[in-house]
C-alpha cells in the first residue's frame, strides 16, 4: 500500500479540536476525582439524593446504646447552607465511644507512610477541656494510629496531619472520646496531603494525572444531564446545577442531589474546574442550564429570564473580570487574581423543544451584547439526527451560535460507516462541537472505530471545531453508565483502549491536516496535475 501526503494542500486549522468532558456520574467527582476521602462529611445526605440515604449514611456508631446516642441537629450549624450536624450524647465516662466513617468504595484507602490532612469542626457542651481522639482503623476495628486534640465550647476548625503506618484499602476514620457529655461534629474531612499539584481541597493525584497526560485542548464541565436535571430554584435541595452554589468556602456550598442517584458536596466546584483547566493547559468550557429542564418540561417564566441571563453574565465576570468587579473579586478571594481567560460557554445540554430555544435566544442575545467575543454553544438533543437535532441546528443558524453541541452513542459499525459524516457540512454554518460520543463498548474494536472517526473529524476541521469522548470517568464500584474512558476504584486507575486512542490524538494534534491518500497503486500520486 502506498500512502501519499500532499504537503501543498492544508486543511483548516485544527484549533482546539480534541478535549475532554467531565461529568459527576459514576461517582466521578465525589468519591472520585475530588480528593475528599470522607463520605457524607457534613451529614447532609438525605432521601432527596437517594431513597436509601440518610444523614448518617457512611457513618457507624462505635459503642453501645448505654454509652452513646447519636442525633442529627440543625439549631446552630457551622454554616446555614449546610444546616445539619452530628450531636453525640456520651452517657458514661471511662468508656470509649464515638463514630467512624466508611469512606467511599470499600473504605478509606490508607497507604503506608502517606500523610493525610484531617480536619473537622467540633464543639462540646462542657466548660472543661474535653479531648477527641481521631484514629485510622481497619474494617475489623484494629487500631492503626490515634491522635488526641482538645475541643472548646464554640465551633472551631481543628486540623491534624496523620501518617498511615500501613496500607489498607478498607480503612476507617474514627472519632471517639471516653468522657461523658455532648460533642458536636460537622465537616469531618480527610485528604491525602499529596493531592494533584499539592492543592488544598484538591484532586486525587493519580486520576488528575491521567487527564493531564492526555494534554486535552479543552475541558467541558460539569455535565451532561447533571446540568439541567432538578428544579428551577437555586435554593431547592434538588435544584439544577447552579454554579454560584459551588464557589467560596466549602462550608458555604450547599449539598445538592446529583441526578445520578447520589449527593454532590460541591467540594469540586466551578473554581476547582477552572483551576484544573489551567493546571492541565486545557481551555474551560462550562455548560450552564438555560432555565429549562427537558426531562420534566420545567421552564422558567419568560418574564423571569434575567436570573438565567445573569447566570451566564456573572459566570463570565467570575472567570474573566478583574479583581474590582463583583464576581472577579470573589475569584480573587478564592486565590486567583488573574482571570481564567474563558472563551467558550455552553447553554444547555441536549435540551429539546421550542420552549428551550426561546430561552436560549434570550440568553444568547444578552451575552453577545455584553461579551461578543465569547463563543456560545447551542445544543441539538441526544441523537445524531431527527426532529430535535434539526431544531437545534435551526436555532443555532438563526441565532448565529458559534457552535452546536452534538451527542451520539453508537455501535462501532456506525462510526466506521459514518466516517464521512461531516464532509458535506459547510464552513459558513455554526461549527460542530461533538460534545459527547462513544462507540458502545470498551473493546479494542470500538477504540479503533473511534480512531477512524477522529481522522474524519480532523479532515473536516472546517466544520468540526471541538470534540470529546463521553463519559470520562467511572468509579468501578458505582457504575451508572458504560463505556467510559477511564476506570478507577479507591486506590487504582486504568485507561481503557479508547483512553489511549484519545491520548494519541491529543498528544499529536497537529496545526492542520494535510491531504492524504492511501492506494494499492505502485505509482505515486501526481498532486501537481490536480492543482492545475
Ligand atoms: O454522558 C452520559 C449522559 O449522556 C450525559 O449526562 C447526557 O448528556 C447524555 O445523555
Structure notes:
The protein has 532 residues and is an alpha/beta fold. Helices cover 23% and strands 30% of the residues. It is built from 12 helices and 28 strands. It has helices spanning 29-33, 205-214, 225-228, 270-280, 306-320, 326-333, 354-370, 387-399, 412-417, 444-459, 497-507, 527-531; strands at 2-13, 20-21, 59-62, 68-73, 85-90, 97-101, 108-110, 115-124, 130-137, 143-151, 156-163, 168-177, 181-192, 218-221, 256-258, 262-264, 283-288, 292-293, 298-299, 344-347, 375-379, 403-410, 431-439, 464-467, 473-475, 486-488, 493-495, 512-519. An 8-stranded parallel beta sheet has the order 2-14-17-20-21-22-23-24. Strand 18 and strand 19 form a beta hairpin. The protein starts with a strand and ends with a helix. The model has no long low-confidence stretch (mean pLDDT 96). The structure holds alpha-L-arabinofuranose. Residues 23, 223-225, 349-350, 382, 407, 436, 470-471, 481 line the site of alpha-L-arabinofuranose.
Strand order of the largest sheet: 2-14-17-20-21-22-23-24
Q: SS-based structural class?
A: alpha/beta
Strand content: 25-35%
Q: Classify the helix fraction into a percent range.
A: 10-25%
* Morphology call: globular
The tally of helices reads 12
Our measurement of the CA-to-CA distance between the termini, rounded to an integer number of angstroms, reads 26 Å
Small molecules (ligands, ions, cofactors) in the structure: alpha-L-arabinofuranose
For the residues shown, what is the average pLDDT?
A: 96
CA-atom Rg in angstroms: 26 Å
Topology, number of strands: 28
Major beta-sheet overview = 8 strands, parallel
- Low-pLDDT parts are none
Amino acid at each position: 500500500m502506498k500512502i501519499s501526503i500532499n504537503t501543498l494542500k492544508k486543511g483548516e486549522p485544527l484549533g482546539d479540536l480534541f478535549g475532554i468532558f467531565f461529568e459527576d456520574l459514576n461517582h466521578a467527582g465525589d468519591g472520585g476525582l475530588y480528593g475528599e476521602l470522607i463520605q457524607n462529611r457534613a451529614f447532609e445526605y438525605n432521601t432527596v439524593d437517594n431513597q436509601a440515604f440518610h444523614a448518617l449514611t457512611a457513618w457507624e456508631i462505635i459503642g453501645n446504646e448505654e454509652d452513646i446516642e447519636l442525633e442529627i441537629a440543625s439549631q446552630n450549624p457551622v454554616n446555614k447552607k449546610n444546616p445539619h450536624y452530628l450531636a453525640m450524647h456520651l452517657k458514661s465516662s471511662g468508656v470509649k465511644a464515638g463514630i467512624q466513617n466508611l469512606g467511599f468504595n470499600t473504605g478509606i484507602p490508607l497507604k503506608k507512610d502517606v500523610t493525610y490532612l484531617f480536619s473537622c469542626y467540633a464543639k462540646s457542651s462542657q466548660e472543661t477541656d474535653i479531648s477527641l481522639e481521631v484514629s485510622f482503623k481497619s474494617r475489623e476495628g484494629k487500631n492503626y494510629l490515634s491522635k488526641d486534640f482538645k475541643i472548646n465550647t464554640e465551633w472551631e476548625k481543628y486540623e491534624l496531619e496523620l501518617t498511615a503506618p500501613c496500607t489498607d484499602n478498607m480503612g476507617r476514620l474514627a472519632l471517639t472520646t471516653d468522657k461523658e457529655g455532648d460533642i458536636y461534629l460537622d465537616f469531618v474531612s480527610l485528604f491525602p496531603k499529596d493531592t494533584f499539584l499539592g492543592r488544598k481541597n484538591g484532586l486525587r493525584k493519580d486520576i488528575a494525572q491521567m487527564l493531564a497526560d492526555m494534554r486535552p485542548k479543552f475541558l467541558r464541565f460539569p455535565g451532561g444531564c447533571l446540568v439541567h436535571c432538578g428544579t428551577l430554584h437555586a435554593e431547592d435541595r434538588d435544584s439544577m446545577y447552579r454554579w454560584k452554589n459551588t464557589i467560596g468556602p466549602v462550608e458555604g456550598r450547599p449539598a445538592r442531589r446529583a441526578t445520578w442517584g447520589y449527593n454532590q458536596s460541591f467540594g469540586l466546584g466551578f473554581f476547582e474546574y477552572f483551576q484544573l483547566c489551567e493546571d492541565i493547559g486545557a481551555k474551560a468550557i462550562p455548560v450552564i442550564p438555560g432555565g429549562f429542564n427537558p426531562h420534566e418540561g420545567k421552564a422558567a417564566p419568560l418574564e423571569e429570564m434575567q436570573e438565567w441571563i445573569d447566570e451566564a453574565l456573572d459566570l463570565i465576570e467570575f472567570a474573566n473580570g478583574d479583581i474590582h468587579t463583583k464576581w472577579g473579586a470573589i475569584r480573587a478571594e478564592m486565590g486567583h487574581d488573574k482571570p481564567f481567560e474563558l472563551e467558550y460557554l455552553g447553554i444547555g445540554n441536549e435540551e429539546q423543544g421550542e420552549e428551550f430555544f426561546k430561552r436560549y435566544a434570550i440568553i444568547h442575545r444578552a451575552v453577545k451584547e455584553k461579551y461578543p467575543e465569547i463563543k456560545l454553544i447551542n445544543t441539538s438533543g441526544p441523537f445524531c439526527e431527527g426532529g430535535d437535532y434539526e431544531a437545534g441546528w435551526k436555532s443555532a443558524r438563526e441565532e448565529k451560535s458559534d457552535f452546536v453541541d452534538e451527542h451520539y452513542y453508537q455501535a462501532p459499525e456506525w462510526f466506521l460507516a459514518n466516517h464521512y459524516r461531516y464532509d458535506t457540512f459547510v464552513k459558513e454554518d455554526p461549527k460542530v462541537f461533538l460534545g459527547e460520543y462513544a462507540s458502545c463498548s470498551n473493546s479494542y474494536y470500538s477504540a479503533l472505530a473511534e480512531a477512524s472517526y477522529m481522522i474524519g473529524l480532523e479532515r473536516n476541521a472546517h466544520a468540526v471545531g471541538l470534540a470529546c469522548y463521553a463519559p470520562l470517568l467511572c468509579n468501578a464500584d458505582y457504575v451508572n453508565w458504560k463505556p467510559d474512558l477511564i476506570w478507577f476504584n479507591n486506590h487504582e486507575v486504568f485507561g481503557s483502549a479508547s483512553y489511549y486512542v484519545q491520548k494519541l490524538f491529543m498528544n499529536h494534534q497537529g496545526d492542520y491536516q494535510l491531504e492524504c491518500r492511501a492506494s494499492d497503486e505502485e505509482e505515486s500520486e501526481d498532486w501537481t496535475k490536480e492543482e492545475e
